[in-house]
Amino acid sequence: MTADLTSLTGLDVPTGLYVGGQWGRGRGGATFPVLDPATEESLAEVADASAADAIDAVAAAHDALPGWAATAPRQRAEILRTAFELMTQRSEQFARLMAAENGKSLRDARAEAAYAAEFFRWYAEEAVRIEGTLMRAPSGANRILTLRQPIGVSLLITPWNFPAAMATRKIAPALAAGCSVVLKPAEDTPLTAFAMAALLEEAGVPRGVVNVVATRREGAAGVVAAMMADDRVRKLSFTGSTQVGRILLRQAADSVINCSMELGGNAPFVIFEDADIPAAVEGAMLAKMRNGGEACTAANRFYVHEAVADEFTSEFAARLRALRVGPGLEEGTDLGPLVNQATLDKVSGLVADATGNGGGKIVLGGQAPDRKGYFYDATLIDAVPSDAGILDAEIFGPVAPVVRFTDEADAIRWANDTEYGLVSYVYTRDLARGLRVSEALEAGMVGLNRGLVSDPAAPFGGVKQSGLGREGAGEGLLEYTETKYIATDW
Ligand code: NAP
Which of 46, 239, 392 has most ligand 1 atoms within 8 Å of its beta carbon, as the pocket-test mutant? Predict the structure, then answer.
């Protein structure tokens, strides 16, 4: 525990590895610092897992698996329900912890704490509804019986941008299905994962069912590769970049590990000439600025019909201009710092490129303010050519490039011209057009006149190189089960 962190957040945040229900420093005793991105100062020193520690965690999860898989679904549901209640009671503390280690504004952090808790509630409700099927074989000779069984030890790897929700979106369905897990959080945000493990222990999760190992960035590849090579691991659920996702898919091939992959996005936000512009601006603020643009679902490219482009950009710029930049933990902050120096460098580079040779015109922002921390101003770039480099990259920052169009077919073609396919946004008052365009967009999810799609009750996931499988909804639970077919005769 760290006293400062406790006074900052109101939570007793463990800083050790959590393996088999024990908190410890790991075999090597190494640690690494977790930085506050608003001050660049250390919040805590946390245990740095080695590959051997990670294998200990796999062994603990494997030992705990039979008991947990045999637990009555109702009992698993009650534990998840308790986790929901505890997290709801402590949502302010979790919000403060996330604002501290991730840098997001308290407003975003509060929304995430509530969203994260909802996965416990949703999967508490789903845990008792895992159904099989029974049918008569077409030949009439026998019956076909199918059951859903827990897939086994699940390795859960999460990014730093939603430290609580990305963890609960995996832990809750895994536990509901009867799986045990090892969670590897991102280097930048391990504290929320440790606090989550402590909460789950308090909610009644038996020892070894949930394990958490954190590592410094340089160690992540080795620690994860060791677990991927252990054939007790039967499931990988990864949320992170497409680049790392590809590496893990290759590793999964060796032991034929079942994979759910939530990867990068490059969301188009298409505004037609018949759109409700104030509603589109509202949606754009959510889709672009939630989490300071550090979201896989963040609107990355705005395709705006020429007829409404001036109106949209001037209203959007006015809203962006009014945002208050500051430390996430400061009440009233709208836009916190980016998570680290590398992200700040990347965002600055993309803006320079888009406005230099890229030909875009800065309407607002376009620079890092002169202050300590990884801050970047809210930025709007108009008249970006449809082939500019910024439109291919995941910006992951508060930067909105606008491309003007006149033809619906061009907008759809440009929107689909990417390897990604996570989410798209469409604004139009014409429902037929909205549905037609939604069908044509190559994305796992579409926000039709809505700037936010995330919902624990909805299937979240991407097509193309944005991922495999779905999280949330009933589908999210099935990702942690295997179908067993029993050919039966009576
Ligand atoms: P990342 O670099 O891919 O890292 C994700 C996780 O993988 C972290 O825990 C990271 O650990 C670990 N990792 C990194 N390199 C690894 C390797 N070689 N082998 C095994 N594990 C490795 O992504 P990020 O920067 O944290 O997160 C941003 C990305 O996540 C964006 O692309 C975003 O779109 C995506 N994302 C997708 C969704 C979705 O639902 N589709 C949701 C949120 C975010 P370290 O932190 O120690 O490097």
Answer: 239
Q: Given a cut of 90, is residue 4 above it in pLDDT?
A: no
pLDDT digits (tens, 9 = 90+) for 214-253: 999 999 999 999 999 999 999 999 999 999 999 999 999 9
Q: Report CA torsion sign: 368, 374, 379, 385.
A: positive
CA of 245 to the centre of ligand 1 (A): 8
Residue 179 appears among annotated catalytic residues: no
pTM exceeds cut of 0.90 = yes
3-state DSSP assignment of residue 53: helix
Is there a catalytic annotation at residue 296? yes
Q: Write down the H helix ranges in 204-276.
A: 217-228, 242-255
User: In angstroms, rounded to a whole number, what is the distance separating the alpha carbons of residues 145 and 150?
Assistant: 17
The 10s digit of each residue's pLDDT in 282-319 is 999 999 999 999 999 999 999 999 999 999 999 999 99
The DSSP letter of residue 335 is: B
Q: Is the CB of 264 under 6 A from ligand 1?
A: yes
Answer whether 217 contacts ligand 1 (Cβ < 6 A): yes
Interval 149-198: pLDDT, tens: 999 999 999 999 999 999 999 999 999 999 999 999 999 999 999 999 99
C-alpha to C-alpha distance for 393 and 360, rounded to whole angstroms: 15
In this structure, the residue with its CA closest to atom 9 of ligand 1 is: 186
The Cα angle at residue 343 between residues 339 and 349, in degrees rounded to 5: 150
**Does residue 441's CB lie within 6 angstroms of at least one atom of ligand 1?**
no
CB of 155 closer than 6 angstroms to any ligand 1 atom: no
Question: Quick one: how far is CA 263 from the chain centroid?
Answer: 9
Q: Using CA atoms of 79, 84, 85, 91 in order, give the dihedral in degrees to the nearest 10.
A: 140
